[in-house]
Design goal:
By secondary structure, the protein is of the alpha+beta class. The chain is built from four helices and six strands; from the N terminus they run αβββαββαβα. It is 36% helix and 19% strand. The strands form two sheets. Strands 4-5-1-6 form a four-stranded antiparallel beta sheet. Strands 2-3 form a two-stranded antiparallel sheet. It is globular and about 70 Å long. The protein starts with 9 loop residues before the first helix and ends in a 25-residue tail after the last helix. The C terminus is likely disordered.
C-alpha cells in the first residue's frame, strides 16, 4: 500500500492485547491484595480514643503553608478545618479533641462516646466526602481527588496517655521544617497499628 497507513500485523495486535491483558490482571491483583491499614477483627465503633492522620492526594500541599512555625490555612484549608469541626454535630456519638490542619495532612483525636452503628470509618468517610465536594466547588472542578484512599489510625488504649497525642498534634506545625513538604510520612513516630 503506497501512501496509506501500514496494514497492522495480526500477530502484533495479538501481542499487544496479551500485554494489555497481563497488565490489567496485575493491576487487579494489586488492587485486590492491597491491605487495609485497619486492625483486623477490631470493631471501630467501640467507645474510646482514636488518633487519625488523613493525607492529601499525592501528599500535595493544598491546605495552606507553614509560616514562622504556624499553619496559615488557605481557602481549602479553611474548608478542611470547618468541616472537621462540624463532624461532632453530624454524629451524636463523637467528640472531637485536638486537631491540626497541615499543608498536606490532618491529625486529629476523635473520641467515640457510645457504641452505635456508625464509627470511625463512617466519620472519616463523611469528612472526606464533604471536604472533597466543597474543595472541588472552590476549585471549579468536579471529581478531583483531594485525599489519599485510606487513612492512618491508632487506637488509644486506656493505659496510654492521651496528652502525648495532643502534644504531638499541637506541636506539629513547629516540626514541619524537619519534614520537607510532600516528602516523608506525616504520621507520628507513635506506633499506630497495635493489636488490642
Amino acid at each position: 500500500m503506497m501512501g496509506g497507513d501500514p496494514v497492522p500485523d495480526p500477530q502484533d495486535r495479538h501481542k499487544n492485547l496479551t500485554r494489555e491483558r497481563k497488565f490489567s490482571e496485575r493491576m487487579i491483583r494489586a488492587m485486590l491484595s492491597r491491605q487495609s491499614p485497619r486492625l483486623k477483627n477490631f470493631d471501630y465503633t467501640v467507645p474510646g480514643g482514636y488518633f487519625v492522620t488523613i493525607c492529601t492526594h499525592q501528599r500535595m500541599s493544598i491546605l495552606g503553608e507553614i509560616q514562622d512555625f504556624n499553619m496559615v490555612l488557605n481557602d481549602a484549608g479553611r474548608i478542611a478545618e470547618l468541616t472537621w469541626d462540624a463532624m461532632a454535630a453530624q454524629f451524636d456519638n463523637l467528640t472531637l479533641d485536638a486537631r491540626v490542619i497541615m499543608p498536606n495532612h490532618i491529625h486529629g483525636l476523635l473520641i467515640i462516646t457510645e457504641q452505635k452503628k456508625r464509627g470511625l470509618n463512617q466519620f472519616i468517610a463523611w469528612y472526606k466526602y464533604q471536604t472533597t465536594v466543597l474543595i472541588n466547588r472552590l476549585w471549579g472542578a468536579s471529581g478531583q481527588s483531594v485525599w489519599q484512599r485510606s487513612y492512618y489510625d491508632h487506637i488509644i488504649r486506656p493505659s496510654e496517655d492521651i496528652a502525648k497525642y495532643r502534644e504531638y498534634i499541637l506541636g506539629n506545625p513547629a516540626k514541619w521544617a524537619e519534614d520537607s513538604p510532600g516528602r516523608g510520612d506525616p504520621s507520628p513516630t507513635i506506633d499506630r497499628h497495635h493489636d488490642p
